[in-house]
Specification:
Layout lengths: L1 H13 L4 E9 L5 E8 L1 H8 L17 H8 L3 E3 L12 H6 L4 E8 L5 E9 L8 H22 L9 H15 E10 L5 E11 L5 E2 L1 H4 L5 H24 L5 E6 L1 H4 L4 H12 L6 E6 L6 H11 L5 E7 L6 H6 L4 E4 L1 H5 L5 H17 L3 E4 L5 H10 L3 E2 L13 H7 L13 H11 L7 H20 L1
Parallel strand pairs: 7-9, 9-10, 10-11, 11-12, 12-13, 13-14
Antiparallel strand pairs: 1-2, 1-5, 3-4, 4-5, 6-7, 6-14, 7-8
Helix pairs in contact: 8-10, 14-17, 15-17, 17-18
Enzyme class: hydrolase
InterPro entries: Cyclic-di-GMP_PDE-like, EAL_dom, EAL_sf
GO molecular function: cyclic-guanylate-specific phosphodiesterase activity
């Protein structure tokens, strides 16, 4: 599906005023850049595919001194104000003069933090076409968009690749009444009280089948993710008001995609929705997923635009993938959510994982943030998170995601007991207590190892239960 996505994006770009052609290029095993997708002037594509004019990685070769190679090597946007006067592009002057190319910008699209994945090239008809500040921001926005597009196609997808017609049917159904916001409780680890719920998007098909987010979110572009967020927010706030009428007062947590966070109208969308449903802003927490494709300055500016609303912010998936300590130190996060992949490792690598989790929890304490541990699937995990000092927990041990209408009954049937001073009963809980106590005095390493072996030995029984 990626070639179709790239072709559609390039076709949109090529239709812009003054755009002669645009293309994506990637070097082959010989270091020669090959065009993967092209839109616009086909003759320009033919020139760039020729053996003499194809850009190269080798800086000793005349075709290795241009903007494409420089963007790849330096992982930064390269532009030429007057292409025919630029000494870096001398190898192409005569050929491109005939095609009336006057300016160019080469935009590296990163596969990860260390390397480029491809180069997006725009060829313009006017001198200095990409020099003005708005066009520089435009190029930076394109870089972010293409990074997110690439990342969305590299996320975990089902083993069977969705056929295009099925993908299209998912999109159509999602925006024609198929979106169903389910909720998962977030519980105080010490008092046992229900504090808030996280609203989670699901797709309900015409036959009643429920499609998980991993099956449809990677299929959505930025505009569709914005639309999904707005629909989900409206639905979730309506649920919150309905629970209020039933005497159930909780807070709401909702994921805000990076591309939607950066949208200029994001604050207006959220403010309008809160006012329409009469919900106080502090009852809404926006979970911000870290993304290396969004630079710290842009991220901070986007959060600053939302702050006047009075909503709260959570750093999502802390401890997994990309996390910026700079953002943690400087941005107004109220909550840190520790990724469920850590909890999943507690039964098999208990000592190292408990130490890492303890460090993240301590960061939350030191910075006066609420710490939520995700992925708590059994009593042992709950006990370990509580002993280490986390504030709240979320996971199957409390409840699986459920329809909004089921939450009041779930809350009513629960027996809430304070666990604040309860001694650990599970090997994992006892190990967590020993490790936490180690900060204040000597703990026998042999005893730690013995407890760790008990944790690992008990894991298969829990997994099979």
């Amino acid at each position: 599906m990626w070639p179709d996505v790239a072709a559609a994006e390039l076709a949109t770009l090529a239709a812009l005023p003054g755009m002669l052609a645009c293309a994506t290029l990637r070097p082959d095993v010989d270091g020669v850049f090959q065009i993967e997708s092209l839109a616009g002037n086909a003759e320009l594509g033919a020139l760039l595919r020729s053996a003499e004019l194809a850009p190269r990685l080798d800086p000793a070769h005349p075709a290795g001194r241009g903007l494409v190679a420089a963007a790849w090597r330096g992982a930064r946007i390269e532009r030429s104000s007057s292409y025919l006067d630029d000494v870096r592009t001398q190898a192409w002057h005569e050929a491109l003069r005939v095609q009336r190319v006057r300016s160019i910008v080469a935009i590296p699209v990163a596969a990860d933090a260390q390397r480029s994945d491809m180069i997006l090239v725009l060829l313009g008809a006017f001198p200095r076409q990409f020099d003005a500040s708005p066009m520089q921001h435009f190029a930076q926005g394109l870089q972010r968009r293409w990074r997110e597009l690439r990342a969305s196609r590299q996320r975990r997808l089902p083993h069977a690749v969705l056929q295009q017609d099925l993908a299209q049917s998912y999109r159509e159904r999602l925006f024609s009444g198929g979106l169903e916001m389910q909720v998962q409780p977030i519980v105080d680890l010490h008092s046992g009280a229900l504090r808030k719920v996280e609203a989670l998007a699901r797709l309900r098909l015409d036959d009643g089948a429920l499609v998980p987010p991993g099956m449809f979110l990677p299929l959505l572009g930025n505009a569709e993710l914005e639309r999904l967020f707005r629909l989900g927010l409206e639905q979730a706030l309506a649920m919150l008001r309905e629970w209020d009428t039933q005497g159930l007062h909780v807070e709401l947590s909702l994921n805000l995609p990076p591309s939607t966070l950066l949208a200029a109208d994001c604050a207006n969308w959220i403010g309008d929705a809160l006012r329409a449903h009469g919900v106080a802003a502090p009852r809404l927490t926006l979970e911000l997923l870290e993304s290396e494709s969004v630079d710290d300055a842009s991220f901070a500016d986007a959060v600053a635009r939302l702050q006047p609303l009075g909503v709260r912010f959570a750093m999502d998936d802390l401890g997994a993938g990309y996390s910026s300590l700079t953002r943690l130190a400087t941005l107004p996060f109220d909550t840190l959510k520790v990724d469920q992949t850590l909890a999943a490792q507690l039964h098999t690598r208990p000592i190292d994982t408990l130490r890492l989790m303890s460090t993240l929890i301590q960061v939350g304490h030191d910075t006066r943030r609420c710490v939520v541990i995700e992925g708590l699937e059994d009593e042992a995990l709950i006990e370990a998170a509580r002993v280490l000092g986390a504030h709240e927990g979320q996971g199957y041990a409390y409840a699986r995601p459920m329809p909004a209408g089921a939450l009041p009954a779930w809350a009513a049937q629960r027996t809430v007991r304070s666990q604040a001073h309860t001694r650990p009963r599970t090997p994992l809980g006892r190990l967590a207590r020993q490790l936490r106590g180690r900060r204040h005095g000597a703990v026998d390493d042999v005893a730690l190892q013995r407890l760790a072996e008990e944790v690992v030995a008990a894991a298969p029984e829990r997994a099979g239960a």
